[in-house]
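Z., the sequence and structure:
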Amino acid sequence: MADTVNPERVEEIIAKKREAIENSVQTRFYKNTLFTLIDQMQDIEIAKYLIENQSLNGYWTSKLINKPETKDEYKNELEKWFYTECPTLVASQERYRIFQDLAQEYINKKAPDLDCFSALSIPCGLMDDLLELEYNSAKDYKLTGLDLDSESLNLAKANAETKNISEKVTLIEEDAFNIKFNNQFDLIISNGLNIYIQDEDKHSKLFNKLAKALKPGGLLITSFLTHPPLGSEESHWDINGIGAENLQIQYKIFVEILEAKWQVYKTEKEMQLMLKRHGLKAIKFFYDKYKIFPTVIAYK
């Protein structure tokens, strides 16, 4: 199951993490703070998944970010924090809504003039980003989802079936770096993959692939993480809005405890140069309220 973890593996990782913290040069007070957070995380499903995987899969992206579930009760205050206060996750929730608004606006404007509107989600996860949109303005449409995770694709298939549009949807299990699409899509939505790519050449290769896949005049909607305030003079994060406590908790959990994989940061200038390098233009940026996870649109 997409939401399950290996309890033995989680315990093993936690034991090693506790040992590493205990042997670190941190103060006893700081160590105890981390141990308290680890204890609380062991009661939370999303936290246990992150402990084992250091990243979110399609299932948890949908449940925590795209369509965050509303709970009457949380296991503890930390679970509530993950869903409602964690700065990067709250910014990503807002980023998803910005994506949806921009994509819907583009569909409503572009689709009526086409015989068939085509869109790609990469990596697609549960494909919420395309399946939650309206295509009433289109004469016809085709939606493609590409992901390397077979479980996410199975859930995307079920998602399409629930909406009774399976015949409009094509799902492909493939590495994003192996795609060979050429002038094929009017719209491409891509979130999440680039924030894991440390290698600059590989990062550039991804956007080259996406640019080639767009039809002339097509739209790319993507995003990036801006530099956090700890250790960077280039940060534009709204520290007052985020709150010092939330910032500290996030750092302790994602950096100190989880060593999360999504820690590739860019500036607006770097993203603009990257997109221009691959022939994309009319680039615009749309920031979430904390200025953590901006959305970028660019045309071919």
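The chain has two domains: 7-91+230-257, 97-227+263-299. The chain has twelve helices and seven strands.

Let me know what you think.
H.
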